[in-house]
Amino acid sequence: MTRRPSRLVRVLSSALAAGTLLSTAACSDDGGTESSRVSGITASQVADERQTPSPTATLSTNGARTALITEADIEDDWTQVKDTEAENWHDSLLIGTVDVSDFLTAKAQASDCQRLLDSLFDDDLLGKPSGASELRGFEEGDSRLLYQVASYDRTDPQDSLNWMATLPEKCDQFTVTDGKEQRTVQVIEIPLPKVGDARQGLRVTVQGSAGGDDATLTLDVAAVRVGDDALTVTAGGLDGDENDSVKQAVQQGTQRLKDVLAGKSPAASPN
To answer: Which of 31, 184, 197, 239 is most buried (most C-beta within 10 Å)?
Structure first.
C-alpha cells in the first residue's frame, strides 16, 4: 500500500475516486456512552473485568480472520470488497495540519487531534498491533465500513481507549489546513452496545468543499477491547452517519472474537 511520508487517514475512498474533497457537518449523538470520558471505562466495568476476565488465548492470524464480521452481520445492503481494495481506502478530507491556535492548551490538544486524524488514515486507532491483525471492508453507495480485529498482547489497548475517551472534550471542534483550504472538524461521543471489557465510540465530522460545493463527511468510529485483543470499526461517507451498522458490527463482532478466543466456532451470522 502506498503511503505518504506523514501519517494520514485511510478510510472511505469514494472522494478520492471522484477526485474531490469531502466535508462534514456535526451530528449529535443519541445518548451517553457506557465508558468514562476520563478513563474510557466505568468502575463497575473494572469490577466485572476482575471477576470474569476475558479469554487469554493467543489470537492467531487464522483466528483473527475467523473473527471478522460478514455482510450478514451488519444492516442494510453492505457489499464486501476485496481485501486489497479495503487496504487502500483513503480520504483526502482527513489530510491536513491541525491549527494550533484553536486550542487553549495549544500544543497538547492539537497533538491529540492530529493523532486522531493520522491514526484513522493508518488504521491504527489503538496503536500498531503487536500480533495478528486482519481487516475487511464493505461498501454501500458512497459509504464505506472498515472492520479490523487485532492482537495487542505486547502493548495496552486500554491506554488508547482512555485517550479516545478524552477526545470529545479536547477536540470538540478544530480547524485543519491543507494548502489554501480550511476544514472544520468536530468530534463527539456516541453510544455503543455494552460488550467486551471496554469500549469507546466517536463521531468525527469534517466540513469542507467538493468541486466547489459544500460537502459533509461523517465517520462513526468504534473500538472494543476483549482482553489483550480488540476490534475497531470505521464507517461513514457523504450519506451521513452509519451508527446502526456500527452498533451491529460491534455487537456481532465482539461475540465472534470471544468465541474464537474460547476455541469455539462463531455462531452463524443473523439473517
So the answer is: 197
